[in-house]
Amino acid sequence: MLFYDFEVFIYDWLVVINDASNRQEKVIVNDPDALQKFYDEHCNDVWTGYNSRHYDQYILKGILCGFDPKKINDYIILKGNPGWKFSSMFKQIPLLNYDVMLGTDRGLKSFEGFMGNNIKETSVPFDIDRKLTPEEIEQTIFYCRHDVQQTMEVFIKRVQEFNTMMYFIKHFHLPISSLSKTKAQLAAEILGGNRKGQNFDDEFQFPILDCISLNKYKHIADWYRNPENHDYTKSQDNVMVAGVPHTFSWGGGHGAIPKYHTKGDFLIVDVTAYYPSLQKQYHFGYRVMDNPENFEFIHDSNIAFKRKGDKKARLPFKIMDNAISGQMKQKQSALYDPMSNNSICINGQLLLLDLIEHLEPFCELVQNNTDGIIIRLKDYDRDFDIIDDVVAEWEHRTGMKMDFDTFFGEIFQKDVNNYLIVDRETGAMKTKGGYIKQLSDLDYDLPILNKAVVNYMVHGILPEQTIMQCNDLKEFQLVSKISNKFSHILHGDKPIKEKCIRVFASKNPNDAGVKKVSIRTGRPAKLTNSPEHCFIWNDEVNGVKVPAKLDKQWYINFANKRLSDFGVVI
Question: Which residue, 135, 398, 454, 475, is the most exposed by fewest CB within 10 angstroms?
Answer without folding.
Answer: 135
